[in-house]
Recover the amino acids of this structure.
DNA sequence: CTATTTTATGGCTGTACAGCCATAAAGTCA
DNA sequence: TGACTTTATGGCTGTACAGCCATAAAATAG
């Protein structure tokens, strides 16, 4: 169920889906890391101006982490040299 | 050479490394997507307040994409249910 | 359907980013 | 070593986020 995220909207969708799968409310996610419920809402809906710090706090609250990788490549044939 | 990113600093490091590997300057990366060279610099150095939109524009400029996944799990044993 | 919980919006405000410009600092190369 | 390129910093400014509070709207439970 891996997703390739290239926009704020896509990121918000993933966050929302994971949060719901864990049965946690926006308020609960936020309170642990001092993020306003309204802020969590806007992020999940793809607010493009969200601050990076806020995103990482939410990822932490949901026990998630980020990975960056090259686009449009077959991972099986990925060469180290490209990095 | 996959990296698990949990902070702005870590993200900045990856961006910087990839950009250098591609022999592109901060100015070049920025100009294509209207990002100030100084902004690229601060992001690479881990500015926590960077806007999400800006991050995605840089990832696009470097032909990168993001993935979100659960923390601290052996990917070989990852269960779909956790998502 | 009603009551309750959860999520989406909006106002207000302090703070800070990002663009733009300039320049110092650091790195590169002949 | 000197000339040139690249990166780091800082000032100035317009814009907008995020916290806080309140509330409407939507979803869920009973």
């Amino acid at each position: 169920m891996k997703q390739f995220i290239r926009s704020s909207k896509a990121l918000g969708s993933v966050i929302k889906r994971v949060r719901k799968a864990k049965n946690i409310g926006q308020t609960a996610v936020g309170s642990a890391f001092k993020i306003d419920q309204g802020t969590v809402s806007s992020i999940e809906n793809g607010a493009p101006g969200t601050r990076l710090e806020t995103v990482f706090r939410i990822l932490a609250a949901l026990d998630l982490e980020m990975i960056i990788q090259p686009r449009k490549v077959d991972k099986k044939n990925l060469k180290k040299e490209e990095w």
